[in-house]
Amino acid sequence: MTLLAIDHIQLAMPPGREPEARAFYSGILGLSEVAKPENLAKRGGAWFAAGDLKVHLGVEQNFVPARKAHPAFRVANLTALVEHLKASGVSVTTDEPLPGYDRVYIADPFGNRIELLQPAG
Question: If you compute the radius of gyration of the chain from its CA atoms, what whole number of angstroms results?
């Protein structure tokens, strides 16, 4: 048995807020929405992808945002992305340096923490 890769990450979201998920993940981050399988679509939520990066948002009735646990997305041009995020009204924060990377943190509309990083240099 060998683990090969992460297929997708799943974050939780409150019920009924799919339009906000679409506005953020597709509209601001530029991910494409992927149709959920019919048997799972009735649960709500939304799926997004860009290349091999896949994010699934699942509805959680007693939702609490992930403020410490988080996905880390590697990006091609962190400076330009930060400018775009700020222009879109997204708050961007920094943290302790991570050797070999430039990085920032954002939160999705539901308060889930997301790290954006780029190899330094």
Answer: 15
Structure tokens given for 53: 């990066």
Query: Coil, helix or strand for 29?
Result: coil
Model-level pTM? Answer: 0.94
- Phi, psi at residue 72, to the nearest 5°? -120, 115
Question: What's the CA gap between 114 and 121, in Å, rounded?
Answer: 22
Residues 6+ apart with CB under 8 A from 115: 70, 71, 72, 73, 103, 104, 105
Residue 114's identity, in one-letter code, is I
Q: Judge residue 33's burial from the number of C-beta atoms within 10 Å of its C-beta, 0-12 exposed, 13-18 middle, 19 or more buried.
A: middle
Question: Is residue 37 exposed (0-12), middle (13-18) or buried (19+ Cβ within 10 Å)?
Answer: exposed
Alpha-carbon distance 36 to 96, whole Å? 37
Q: What digits encode the pLDDT tens for the residues 60-100?
A: 999 999 999 999 999 999 999 999 999 999 999 999 999 99
For the chain, helix, strand, coil in percent to 5 are: 20, 30, 45
